[in-house]
Amino acid sequence: MTSPADHAPLRAQLDTLTTEAYRPELAEIDRRPTLDIARTMNDEDATVPAAVARRLPEIAAAIDATAARMARGGRLIYAGAGTAGRLGVLDASECPPTFNTDPSEVLGLIAGGPSAMVTAVEGAEDSTKFAIEDLSAIGLTDLDTVVGISASGRTPYAIGAVEHARALGALTIGLSCNADSALAAAAEHGIEVVVGPELLTGSTRLKAGTAQKLVLNMLSTITMIRLGKTYGNLMVDVRASNEKLRARSRRIVALATGASDQEIETALRSTDGEVKNAILILLGGVDAPTAARLLDAADGHLRAALQAAEDH
Question: Is 263 marked active-site?
Answer without folding.
Answer: no
